[in-house]
Write a structure and sequence with these properties.
Rossmann fold, five-stranded parallel beta sheet, about 40% helix, globular
Length: about 210
Amino acid sequence: MSEIAHIAAAIFKRAGGARRFIVAIAGPPGAGKSTLSAKLNAVLPEGASEVVPMDGFHFDDGILDRRGLRSRKGAPETFDFAGFEALLRRIRSGEPDIAIPIFDRGMELSRAAAAIVAADTKFVLVEGNYLLLDEEPWARLAPLFDFTIFVDVPRNELERRLRQRWHDHGRSEEDARAWIASNDMPNIERVLGRRRPADLVVGDYV
């Protein structure tokens, strides 16, 4: 059995007969949270799971400009925490057919109502950098998760992946390195240095 299958089996066993089971998949930028979420979604029973990315709650660049936060895009304060928390509470309540936003990296925009958590969705895989952040208001999310996973990848590998990510989005080598140093690495250090313990810590899935 693959490690992904083992993780899925652990989730399935922990969930038992619950109607809804919410899994937090946290980690720093570039760790592979989206990849792990997609792989778990593929091996859990068909139609029983949905991925909910925290990135759908990025503030628009226009708002970040007005707040002087454009240079810190991706930091905790550049997300609509209140909207994200409200969504998770709706999901926790079992409300049917909940629309969720998805962040489109190609457009650098969130697409509203881009996916649905249906009434019969049992496993909700929530993925994002700050799900385990031990700072207010993010610490308020803790009771909303039934199981938590942290994806732990060495810093040098995170930096390599982020350089590739920004190259793929058209940034020059110089611009990519500058952005990583001024923005991504501070976010990485915040995720690693101020996180609550996870139920499960896993390695590389990219």
